[in-house]
Amino acid sequence: MSQVVERVLSFDPAPAIARGFERGALKEHVRFQAYATIPDFFDQPDPKRCTCGCGRELTGRQRRWAENDCSAFGLAVLRILKCDADVIRYYLSEQRGAGCQHCGVMNEPLQVDHIVPVHKGGGGRWLDNYQLLCECCHKQKTAEDRRRPSTKSGERGRASRRLSLGG
Ligand SMILES: [Zn+2]
Ligand SMILES: [Zn+2]
Fold this sequence. Notes:
Shape: flat
Mean pLDDT: 91
Distance between the termini: 23 Å
Bound molecules: zinc ion
Radius of gyration: 17 Å
């Protein structure tokens, strides 16, 4: 596993997400966070140091990132939070394996599912609100989501069910 992948998978997204919501770049009832940009998630308190938080000093014409790995990491975080399905699919399969996370089927195209659906406020979340499902399981999950009332208890039910789904 590359350093960038490891860094993304062990990243604590809470501060970045809080910042994104605070700045209005993330919206919980929106699927694609089209207007979010790097400064919506990364504070750069010292303009002479790398945005990613690695602490390295910027040199020459560098404005934001000290190294390629820093920008690869930062852009992956940005794309995940913007809901880029290809990037999310890549990181989820690195983290949890390449099969459907419900039925386990392999060698089928997998779709990215919001565990807490967007219409229940699951937009603008991190990888823990996504799972990879085969088309069949995804259809079932989407139908279930529509049947469930959009209450707070419904969301809690969904969040705890996800453990058995992920199994
Ligand atoms: Zn850096
Ligand atoms: Zn499946």
